[in-house]
Design brief:
Layout lengths: L32 E7 L8 E8 L2 E9 L6 H4 L8 H5 L7 H16 L5 H31 L12 H23 L8 E2 L2 E2 L5 H26 L10 E6 L9 E4 L4 E2 L8 E4 L8 E4 L4 E2 L2 H8 L5 H6 L14 H23 L15 E9 L2 E9 L5 E7 L1 H18 L6 H15 L11 E4 L1
Parallel strand pairs: 6-11
Antiparallel strand pairs: 1-2, 1-15, 2-3, 4-5, 6-7, 7-8, 9-10, 12-13, 13-14
């Protein structure tokens, strides 16, 4: 575990007056010590920075700092009505608000002993599929795709490359519109509630969604090919953790890891250990006492045989890449998941007749409940306590980026350690590209990169 005395702080080590942040101070030019600071990492969700210290040819530390201000949402939900809690917690994140809404709803239902109908669970799967398509497309096509073409951003694409961006927005738009048809909105959905959906998609909604998903399916396969051929590689030996199930669904299953451990819902939190990161605004986690990774790569490593049959058929030549320890395979796994979500949604939409149903009322009683599902960036946990008045007395929310924080630090240390002699521009680009591969979500913004060297 990380302890405060494991790290040498960088506070007070500002550049000498009048010197550029990117130039070494004269007294340091003969030193074997090297400092790297990445501020406002570009093309990720939110704000983060990295401090790195190299001494005598070795990486002394890597400090990944989640620099968003603390938001205290686990305190904010206390004494709030449990029945309306999911609509509140969906505001935690704009990119994956449907994941928070669904996971919180599942925790409330678990606490009060409510079992949703089969149709409600099916609609949840469809809304999660739409979110995955949209969110993965944003990360892959707008944040990571420029790396494949040696560009700074998609705004630099020109000529034939502009057609690639058109296809990228078409895939992302199909995910948006699927979520709108099923849940009312792509972000902060309005139809999904505890125990039910207040609106059922009509035949015309289904028809439009099917047509649009079919129109972008070939594009999704083209993007899989691109990420498969990227050649990027940074292997990291870690434990991979995800929900394991029979059909690659995102909202049910047993928690599993790459060593074969399978954990039932009541024992999830016995395996998760909080780790205080003294220099970061986020608490990290270990699984069974060691660092681990969650996300698409973990899901693919543990569940690739459960992908939709049509996905397995059309992406068969890419499946040999898994299981993988290559962090960049997370991008390939997300690209394959987009195709799976398209195929899964097409089957669900075409094989079910959606009908208005009279859902049993949700009677809020005293209890404790757990909700767990796979958000785009990995496993999301909710644990809630509800009192007799139907108010929330306690809540614990563990998001994927917290769980990946230690793994990201160690991957960066390995990358830098194997490239000590490389020039500054190479290192700063490779560090940032590696962080992007984890698809971290600090908040809902992205900024440009600045690195200060000493």
């Amino acid at each position: 575990m990380h302890r405060a005395d494991d790290f040498d702080g960088l506070e007070g080590e500002a550049c000498a007056a009048g010197q550029s942040a990117s130039q070494p101070a004269p007294q340091d030019r003969q030193s074997t010590e090297r400092r790297i600071r990445l501020e406002s990492i570009s093309k990720i969700e939110g704000h983060g920075s990295v401090d790195i210290k190299i001494s005598d040819g070795k990486v002394k530390y890597v400090k990944l700092k989640i620099t968003e201000s603390k938001r205290f949402y686990t305190q904010a939900i206390r004494n709030k009505a449990a029945i309306s809690l999911p609509l509140m917690t969906s505001r935690i994140c704009g990119t994956c608000s449907i994941a928070h809404l669904t996971c919180c709803s599942a925790a409330v239902e678990d606490a009060v002993g409510y079992v949703p109908s089969e149709q409600t669970l099916l609609l949840r799967q469809l809304s999660l599929n739409g979110m995955m398509i949209r969110d993965h497309a944003l990360h892959l096509y707008l944040f990571c795709l420029p790396d494949l073409f040696g560009k700074d951003s998609v705004l630099d694409f020109e000529g034939p490359q502009e057609e690639i961006i058109r296809k990228a927005f078409a895939v992302k738009g199909a995910g948006n519109n699927l979520s709108k048809a099923i849940a009312g909105r792509a972000v902060h959905a309005t139809f999904a509630e505890v125990g039910k959906f207040s609106h059922i998609p009509g035949a015309e909604d289904v028809k439009k969604a099917v047509a649009e998903l079919r129109s972008v399916r070939d594009y999704a396969i083209e993007f899989i090919e691109m990420f498969y051929g990227s050649g990027f590689k940074q292997e990291h030996d870690t434990d991979f953790v995800a929900l394991v199930n029979k059909d690659y669904s995102f909202h049910y299953g047993e928690l599993g890891d790459s060593s074969g451990t399978r954990i039932k819902k009541g024992r999830y939190f016995d395996y998760l250990d909080k780790v205080v990161i003294p220099y970061s605004q986020a608490t990290a986690y270990e699984f069974k006492g060691r660092e681990y990774m969650v996300g698409a790569l973990s899901r693919m490593n543990l569940n690739k045989g459960s992908l939709h049959r049509q996905t397995r058929a059309d992406a068969s030549r890419f499946m040999g890449a898994f299981p993988s320890k290559n962090v960049y395979s997370n991008n390939l796994a997300q690209a394959i998941e987009i195709l799976h979500c398209i195929d899964s949604s097409l089957e669900l939409l075409e094989s079910h007749a959606f009908r208005e149903e009279s859902a049993a009322p949700v009677n809020i009683v005293e209890g404790e409940g757990v909700g767990v599902l796979e958000a785009p960036r990995g496993t999301l946990y909710y644990r809630l306590s509800i009192n007799k008045e139907g108010k929330t007395t306690y809540g614990s929310i563990i998001v994927p980026t917290q769980q990946n924080q230690i793994s990201m630090e160690r991957s960066i240390a390995e990358l830098v350690g194997s490239n000590i002699g490389k020039d500054r521009k190479f290192l700063e680009y490779e560090i940032e590209k590696l962080i992007r591969a984890y698809d971290p979500c600090m908040s809902c913004a992205s900024h440009f990169l600045r690195i200060n060297w000493k």
